[in-house]
Design goal:
single chain, 65% helix, 15 helices
């Protein structure tokens, strides 16, 4: 009897969802648009940074040094029209200004310290760090080549090889992470809007008057929107493969198990927000605030979780999307299989059950007060 009532509620929710054109757009069009925008627009490697060089030495070494700077494919030449240093940065004409003083080549050949003045725009901390590392590496390479002293003289030789992503494709980092961000937002948003709409229209009172218990009502609604979320996930995976070439690596079964578990946790939060809000706009704002902020800031999507300061680092453990993003990056990039991902699924399951309990309590309380 319980299974039949849950099944009826499940099909009823799906039927109502199919008649909602806005819901269909939110479920299957906007997620694809969001994936394309995130995958194409976000870039982590700095490129085309404007560099202006004042070469006061005018020697073969100084010219070779300048050519090597631009050969990093990090910088583009900028026009400098000032008369004093560092006009290029003060006038926002460049992000870094390099001055090679007179006698630079002579000092290097004589074994003295060859000073090069570098001024970097520190208003962008990330780019400033990248610029400094690039100039330091280029300077060391040029000096070693000029003096004929290889890096072995330093006593340490690093043989570096990039594992999992040797081509440094940003899509292999951005796209799997965007799966988690998008799926963390849209399924909860859909079920929260649907529940609040029933409250606004008064149709939810019919459910309260029926023989459905709070448990049966929540399970029926949850299964319906978990199914919708799985459809979204399938479409996103296909689009990610077709447009960005991101495919499975190794055993994909952890993703097949972990995705429904992640949907369980996300849908329950949407139910909780739908229960405790009274208007659709309030539900949308709540989902936007909670899900967007946690997905972008507390889930390791763009920044490593080790950089999250205390006490927000503690809160990140209660964010299911952090585990799902790690699961996606394993399945689509590393391929460690169940050995490296089982704990992520367990964590999402625990959070999903806890959120279901809170949603059940709120629904039962709402039924008794109506």
């Amino acid at each position: 009897m319980i299974i039949r009532r849950i099944r009826n509620q499940f099909f009823k929710e799906l039927e109502q969802f199919q008649r909602d054109r806005l819901g269909l757009a939110l479920a299957f069009i906007l997620p694809v648009i969001a994936l394309l925008i995130i995958g194409l627009a976000i870039r982590l490697e700095a490129k085309n940074l404007s560099l202006v060089v004042r070469d006061l030495d005018q020697t073969s070494l100084s010219r070779s040094y300048i050519e090597r700077l631009y050969a990093t494919n990090l910088f583009v030449p900028a026009q400098w029209q000032g008369e004093r240093f560092p006009d290029a940065l003060d006038r926002d004409q460049a992000q870094v200004q390099v001055t090679i003083p007179p006698g630079f080549s002579a000092d290097v050949d004589a074994g003295k310290t060859g000073n090069v003045q570098v001024v970097i725009d520190g208003s962008d901390v990330i780019n400033a760090r990248v610029i400094k590392l690039a100039i330091d590496g280029t300077t060391l390479s040029v000096l070693q080549e000029r003096l004929g002293k290889p890096s072995e003289t330093l006593g340490v030789v690093a043989q570096v090889r990039l594992w999992f992503n040797p081509g440094r494709q940003e899509s292999l980092f951005i796209v799997p992470g965007s799966y988690g961000v998008i799926l963390a937002i849209f399924p909860p948003l859909l079920i929260a809007i649907a529940l609040v709409r029933e409250k606004e229209q008064g149709t939810i009172l019919q459910l309260y008057a029926s023989s459905l218990s709070a448990f049966e009502l929540l399970v029926g609604k949850s299964l319906a929107y978990i199914a919708v979320g799985l459809g979204e996930a399938l479409i996103l995976f296909i689009v990610g493969w077709l447009f960005f070439g991101v495919g499975f690596v190794g055993d994909p079964s952890p993703l097949f198990v972990g995705t429904p578990v992640f949907m369980l946790a996300g849908v329950q939060l949407g139910l909780i927000i739908g229960i405790f809000t009274t208007t659709q706009s309030a539900a949308v704002q709540a989902i936007g605030t909670i899900k967007v902020l946690t997905a972008f800031l507390l889930a390791g999507f763009l920044f490593p979780l080790s950089s999250v300061p205390f006490p927000f680092s503690i809160f990140s453990y209660f964010v299911p999307v952090r585990y799902y993003i790690e699961l996606c990056r394993d399945v689509f990039v590393r391929g460690s299989g169940w050995f490296g991902t089982w704990h992520l699924i367990v964590a999402m399951l625990v959070l999903g059950i806890a959120e279901f309990g809170l949603a059940w309590w709120g629904m039962r309380r709402m039924q008794l007060s109506s």
